Amino acid sequence: MAAPTFAVNAHRFDPYRTFKFQCLIDGRPVAGLQKMTALKKTTEQVKWRSAGDPSHQRVIPGGTSYEPVTLEQGLTHDPVFEEWANLVNNIQGDGGISLVNYRKDIVINVLNLQGAVAMSYRLYRAWVSEFQALPDFDSNSMNTVGIQSITLQHEGWERDTAVTEPTES
């Protein structure tokens, strides 16, 4: 039996790679984005027994929780992580939250080897719960790239089904 083929590119056999991706915050790609943790959700299990049938335990789905997502960016002059983190808690003034803009919907695009968007996901109502402005510095590591990171709490994600597999030449 032959392996199933891709819907648009029937000649294709390989899945998408994980090194070609982009994240859009406020509609702009994040500069120097190096790494993103997985999109993962877990649905709790609720166990119950029906009256009159104590020998059989049933399991039904309960609430669903979404794991935080961490984005790592090479240290650049792009202030997107810091500006967003400051909306949640700013050291200036009373350190209050900007209730208007601290939650954002962001877009994660999976790119094919030619750089075309192959899949897209939208992360809903994300906010920065952790921000690392500077990495550890070590004068003995000349070949190390500095990394900034943010950890995002969010209320779920879904795939954008309007994005279809690009045709390849």
Query: What is the level 1 CATH name?
Result: Mainly Beta
- The outline comes out as extended
- The secondary-structure class comes to mainly beta
Mean pLDDT: 88
CATH architecture: Roll
The largest sheet, given as strand count, sense and whether it forms a barrel, is: 8 strands, antiparallel
Structure commentary:
The protein is mostly beta strands. The chain has a single domain, classed as Pnp Oxidase, Chain A (Roll). The strands form two sheets. Strands 1, 2, 3, 6, 7, 8, 9 and 10 form an eight-stranded antiparallel beta sheet that branches. The longest helix is centred in the middle third of the chain and has 9 residues.
Please sum up the structure shown.
This protein is mainly beta and 169 residues long.
Notable features of this structure?
169 residues; mainly beta; Pnp Oxidase, Chain A; eight-stranded antiparallel β-sheet; two-stranded antiparallel sheet; 1 helix; 10 strands; 5% helix; extended
Chain-wise SSE layout:
Layout: E1 21-25, E2 28-29, E3 33-36, E4 41-50, E5 53-66, E6 69-74, H1 80-88, E7 104-111, E8 117-132, E9 147-153, E10 157-159
Antiparallel strand pairs: 1-2, 1-7, 3-6, 4-5, 6-9, 7-8, 8-9, 8-10
